[in-house]
């Protein structure tokens, strides 16, 4: 273990949050605030500071000639909604909030998918079980505030298709994610969810 790796390990040990995934550590960085780890389903969490996290994926196409930006979101099923990106830094998987939002360039399509951009649901207010539906409000710089319906499942919902001005949103889905502290007897790690202890 080199010095850098050791430093990271110690930092995580101190925080008592974070998860180990083979060869990588998933970690949240929220700007200047204290780093906070959220499990995205790649491994077994050590300790969770929140009541569970989820991630929403979709494809956003901008058919217009003006760029737009996804800047925020809100939903009843989570206390905090953030726009995130996920990148490998060496052997460390880092999730970061896109504080400027996610740009959808004019005439282009941006995919929010596993291992990349996603809408992060932090502090779930209830478990997201397969085939659940919930409303998610998204705020765009140009298109304004829009509301979509999110289906909980393991792959893009082909039935979901929305048009807001120049934006076309398709393939919306959220992976199942249990709210922490609930014991439902499912020991295995759920995709994109936070397993309970
Ligand atoms: Cu995230």
What descriptors fit this protein?
single chain, 197 residues, mainly beta, Immunoglobulin-like, 10-stranded mixed sheet, 1 helix, 14 strands, globular, disordered N terminus, disordered C terminus, binds copper (II) ion
Molecular structure report:
With 197 residues, the chain is mostly beta strands. The protein contains one helix and 14 strands; from the N terminus they run αββββββββββββββ. The protein has a single domain (3-174), classed as PCu(A)C copper chaperone (Immunoglobulin-like, Sandwich). It is 7% helix and 47% strand. The strands form two sheets. Strands 1, 2, 3, 4, 6, 7, 9, 10, 13 and 14 form a ten-stranded mixed beta sheet that branches. The protein has a four-stranded antiparallel beta sheet with strand order 8-5-11-12, with no helix packed on it. A hairpin with a 2-residue loop joins strand 1 (19-21) and strand 2 (24-29). The structure holds copper (II) ion (CU).
Low-confidence stretches: 1-37, 41-48, 182-191, 193-197
Q: What percentage of residues falls in helices of 4 or more residues?
A: under 10%
Count of individual beta strands:
14
Q: Structural class of the helices, strands and pairings?
A: mainly beta
First and last CA, distance: 29 Å
Strand % is: over 45%
Shape: globular
Round the Cα radius of gyration to an integer and report it: 17 Å
Q: Say which CATH homologous superfamily is assigned.
A: PCu(A)C copper chaperone
Instruction: Name the CATH architecture.
Output: Sandwich
**Top-tier CATH class:** Mainly Beta
**CATH fold node name:** Immunoglobulin-like
């Amino acid at each position: 273990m080199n010095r850098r790796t050791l430093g990271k390990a110690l930092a995580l040990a101190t925080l008592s949050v974070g998860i180990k995934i083979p060869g990588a550590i998933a970690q949240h960085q929220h700007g200047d605030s204290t780093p906070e780890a959220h499990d995205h389903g790649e491994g077994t969490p050590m300790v969770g500071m929140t009541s569970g996290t989820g991630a929403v994926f979709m494809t956003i196409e901008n058919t217009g000639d003006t760029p737009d930006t996804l800047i925020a979101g809100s939903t009843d099923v989570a206390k905090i909604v953030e726009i995130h990106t996920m990148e490998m830094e060496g052997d460390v998987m880092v999730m970061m909030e896109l504080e400027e939002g996610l740009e959808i360039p004019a005439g282009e399509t941006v995919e929010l998918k596993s291992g990349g951009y996603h809408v992060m649901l932090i502090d779930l207010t209830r478990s997201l079980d397969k085939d659940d539906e919930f409303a998610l409000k998204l705020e765009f710089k140009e298109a304004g505030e829009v509301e979509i319906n999110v289906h909980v499942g393991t792959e893009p919902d082909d039935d979901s298709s929305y048009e807001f001005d120049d934006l076309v949103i398709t393939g919306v889905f959220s992976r199942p994610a249990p709210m922490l502290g609930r014991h439902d007897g499912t020991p295995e790690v759920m995709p994109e969810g936070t397993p309970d202890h």
